[in-house]
Specification:
Strand content: 35-45%
Number of helices: 2
Oligomer: single chain
Low-confidence stretches: none
Strand order of the largest sheet: 8-5-6-10-9
Structural class: alpha+beta
Number of domains: 2
Number of strands: 10
Largest sheet: 5 strands, mixed
CATH architecture of the largest domain: Roll
CATH superfamily of the largest domain: CPE0013-like
Radius of gyration: 15 Å
CATH class of the largest domain: Alpha Beta
Helix content: 10-25%
Distance between the termini: 45 Å
Length: about 120
């Protein structure tokens, strides 16, 4: 049994994942995306990338960001390097796109919190 916190949506559900041979059972999810995320995470194939992007605001020097879907495991660190190059210099809201289809992936990198100007 493995417990993970799901980063896919704002619920951040605590998922319990159990594997019996090829059978994977997920509980604790409030949406279907949580079940899919847990199975992909357990298999180690793909990951939702979460990180922090820099801002120019002293009251909030960084803001959490995440991908809108899963990314192949081998591209995670390349994507993080792209996120590190970003600096937010204007107010943005949770869910706004920071990077659209980075590395030609079918996902976006979005803010996971509001950035309010000082």
């Amino acid at each position: 049994m493995v417990e993970i916190t799901c980063p896919v949506c704002k619920n951040h559900c605590l998922l319990t994942v159990e594997q019996d041979g090829e059978q994977i059972t997920v509980s604790g999810n409030k949406c279907a995306r949580g079940e899919l995320h847990a199975k992909e995470e357990l298999r180690g194939e793909r990951k939702v990338v979460t990180y922090h992007a820099a801002t120019t605001f002293a009251s909030m020097p960084s803001v959490p960001v995440k991908t809108t879907g899963t990314v192949p495991k081998e591209l995670v660190f390349r994507l993080i390097r792209l996120i590190k190059k970003q600096t937010i210099d204007h107010p943005m809201q949770r869910g706004e796109v920071l990077l659209h289809h980075p590395l030609d992936l079918p996902v976006d990198v979005v803010l996971d919190a509001d950035v309010v100007q000082e």
